[in-house]
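User: two proteins, same treatment. go.

Assistant:
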Amino acid sequence: MRFGRGVLVALAIPAFVVLTAISTLASASPTQSSSDTASGTVTLPGDPSKGATLYAQNCATCHGSGLEGGIGATLNPIDKLPGVADPLDPAFLIDTITNGRQPHPGDPKQTPMPPKGGNESLTDQDIKDLASFIIVQNRQGSPPLSPGELAKRTILWVGIGIIAMVFITYLLATYNMRWIARRAAARRR
């Protein structure tokens, strides 16, 4: 009976680890919205490589070097805005960059965005390039994990590691105690 329970436990722990890993990876994959599925049909208004350079020079101070936000809104993944169906719509992005944006009541980011990000020398083509860069960054791959999500995953995997080590220690101790008992019984004979 003990052998059957040990085998069951020995198989249950790896199965638990695998299932946890699968569920973590499944929850980590970004959900695709209807606008993401149509990304192949959206034509970019400008050149994303030029937009990357312009972004680093003009936008990174407020929106972060990795579009992760800061003083300004998070641009990857782009913040969902009230009353905006698709924040990655090129016309919406061009209008927002050109004219700026006042925060709506209840917005977590209460900092207004000035027109052209405060740089009046940006041309219309520069703004189109910036919009293209933001769209491309949101369409490719998954964004980096937020610090909170990274901490949750680290705690999860450290916890799984600790549980596995305790289990292995238990198995080794049980085996060792049986070996000692057999050895003592053999000496008594």
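Protein 2:
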Amino acid sequence: MLFKNAFVFRTELRQFVFGGFHTENGRFADVFSGETQEDGRDLEETYVIPGLVDAHTHGAVGADFSDGDLEGLTRMGTYLAENGITSFAPTSMTLPYGQLSAAFATALALKKERPGNCARCAGIHMEGPFFSEKKKGAQNAAYLKLPDFEAFRGLYDGCEGLIRIVDAAPELPGAAEFAGKAAGLCTVSAAHTDTSYQEAAAFYDAGASHLTHLFNAMPPLHHRNPGVIGAAAERENVTAELICDGQHVHPSAVRIAFSLFPDRICLISDALRCCGMPDGTYELGGQNVRLKGGIARLEDGTIAGAASNLYQDMCNAISFGIPVAQAIIAATLRPAEVLGVSEDTGSVSTGKYADFIVCDKDLALREVYLDGIKIV
């Protein structure tokens, strides 16, 4: 099918270009510039961006990945697709291995049996249980463990290698060794950590290449103790996640983050089951979370995950002063690369899945397409 007369975001050019594209068998068959007289769908000078890719999201519309419920995960994926997030990595919490295994099985089932109106499962983000107690945040301390590659490998094999990101705190005994081994299988990320600069440097030098929710659940950057942020920022192969819900990170710090990690920011939602739901009490990893006024907190007041989706966060980043092209890439291609799926998604490019969004000049969402088929 031909889609024409649109301003298409061309990731390789980092700008919108007037033109269109063909789709064939659910993929982009040709992306072109300029006008055409060929019959097709006239997009009437609207704007087209790639479907967003969320590399870190726990839940939405009452469902949580860690529930291990395929119906709930499908409902979550459908909500995401309807909001322009066409690929996602369901993200686990710090829980017993048996519960993680059950949840991971649902992700594998969704990947194999995805309904047409549901976002693609691009892989699993295993957040925990290899974390520091001091910086556990909303993670359940009862289930924290030291890095264990054999346990991780068992979970990895059990879901047929669908784990694409695994997190660990660099200061824990065996963390660097774990990073060296796990990096051969997926992206390894520093997270929920009170690490020193030296420990973080060793972790990255061993093979880690990512930083989970920059600024949150880690020591701040200090000029005499740069910690994990300093170690990550100075390594050009390290990408960093950023939550732009307006609650977790101040707009000024968002702008600083894009400067610290030039072209290496992955916008994420870190959304919980309360995303897309009214104020109330919800469950997270065996703990109660209270959503009030757009902020989700544990009963002790600790800020938990987020209540907004990635499309909202991308628009927030732009409103905070991030250039449009940078924000779009940070919500599309960059997370696709971290998840190892950029050959199939993350940009409007020939050969990739025809997952795209039609919006207005201000990126207000109008339509969403999966496999070239309109779902919204």
